[in-house]
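Researcher: Quick one. two chains, 229 residues in total.
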Amino acid sequence: EVQLVESGGGLVQPGGSLKLSCAASGFTFSGSAMHWVRQASGKGLEWVGRIRSKANSYATAYAASVKGRFTISRDDSKNTAYLQMNSLKTEDTAVYYCICSYGFYFDYWGQGTLVTVSS
Amino acid sequence: QSALTQPASVSGSPGQSITISCTGTSSDVGGYNYVSWYQQHPGKAPKLMIYDVSNRPSGVSNRFSGSKSGNTASLTISGLQAEDEADYYCSSYTSSSTQVFGGGTKLTVL
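Model:
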């Protein structure tokens, strides 16, 4: 059974940093791309970014709204993906989902972790 | 990258069919056969329903189907059931090698 478990969410002040983790099991982690998608309360889904597999040079891409502030990485030896978030803004407040992907779609989703940016 | 355009809400009675549209541009929906659809019930994570325009993952009911014409993709749900009431989102790969979602459509089963 595929499992994706996000952790690291919480309350952070504007301008602060937070690092989310996504522990994966039940599938070939090293062969999949990993994405992060967020959803503000009562709002729609917003793609944040992704990191491809080693075979695809660990290529990353980001949404314009987070580019330069967020960094996605992965550790295939630990079956874990990360989302480093810096210079956080109040508008970054959302539930953050990690997702595994073998194509141009989002196969399996974690349950999400809440990030609240507030003073 | 602007969000894809979906109707805010659609509704239908049990047993009927409904269609949700998803309009983009030639840089996303129209340029690639990489449109996918997701179902999200309140308080739950989204679930993949359709990928690559018209393919259903294993376990998804054949009442769900997808199609595309030009810059607009569509999700059709036939034989509506109460459990289909949820939010639905489309997504597309883009020419910038990113992904973009639609704004979401709330489906109400009357």
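The beta strands of chain B are 9-12, 18-23, 35-40, 47-50, 64-69, 72-77, 86-93, 99-101, 105-109.
Researcher: Thanks, that's what I needed.
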